Amino acid sequence: MPHITLHTPLGELTVFEDRGAIVALDWGRGVGPDDAAPTPLLQAAAAQLQDYFDGVRATFDLPLDPQGSTFRRKVWDALCRIPPGETRSYLDIARDVGCRSARAIGQANGDNPIPIIIPCHRVVAADGSLGGYSGGEGAATKRFLLALEARSRTGAAPGELPLSSPPTGGQHQGPNR
User: Fold this and answer.
1) Which entry of 120, 124, 140, 146 is annotated as an active-site residue?
2) Active site at which residues (predicted)?
3) Is 120 assigned a catalytic role?
4) How many domains does the chain have?
5) For residues 67-85, average pLDDT
6) What is the structure's pLDDT at 88?
7) CA nearest to 49, candidates 119, 106, 102, 2
8) pTM higher than the cut 0.70
9) Are residues 88 and 43 in the same domain?
10) What's the whole-number mean pLDDT along residues 82-88?
């Protein structure tokens, strides 16, 4: 499957394309031959991710095709409606998609195959605590992404707002998110 690996403050991220759409984002280096030239879509995804980490871009404009059940896709669509720099609770998302179970939302969040681009990091517990995050280095990665977006949203120059240092290692820990 065509993919591109890029270096980010969170370590290496690999973006995968299938049939003209982004289908996955994984922590770490992609597997498979690295000698194939990246497609124009993968180059666009890499550029948009670099702009995101540079604080220039807060949203993404890419064709996405995450594979999942109708329910999960509905949840992932709801995540994409959370404005950058803001959060919603698992219960908020449950209400938004007509579900009674915040736990089901958490499971769909954990199964998101395109984290960051589908912003599952913007979902927190009802009491405002971070909740879980299974991508990168867990809560430290989630905290970093939220701080990055808060800084970008306010228009603060780097250093004007505290931005927790990026987690180290950036190793994939099970399903992405």
Assistant:
1) 120
2) 120 (nucleophile)
3) yes
4) 2
5) 96
6) 96
7) 119
8) yes
9) no
10) 94
Average pLDDT over residues 20-28: 95
Give the pLDDT confidence score for residue 160 in this predicted structure.
43
Concatenated DSSP letters of the chain: --EEEEEETTEEEEEEEETTEEEEEEESPPPS-S-SPPPHHHHHHHHHHHHHHTTS-SS----B-----HHHHHHHHHHHTSPTT--EEHHHHHHHHT-S-HHHHHHHHHT-SSBTTB-GGGEE-TTS------STTTHHHHHHHHHHHHHHHHTPPBTTB--PPPPSS----SS--
Same domain for 76 and 49, yes or no, is no
- CA 92 – CA 96 distance, rounded (Å): 6
28-63: pLDDT as tens digits: 887 666 557 789 999 999 999 999 999 999 999 999
> What is the residue range of 100's domain?
70-154
Share of the chain above pLDDT 90, in %: 69
CA distances from 28 to 10, 19, 83, 101, 176 (A): 10, 22, 27, 32, 11
CATH of the domain at 106: 1.10.10.10
Q: Is residue 172 part of a domain?
A: no
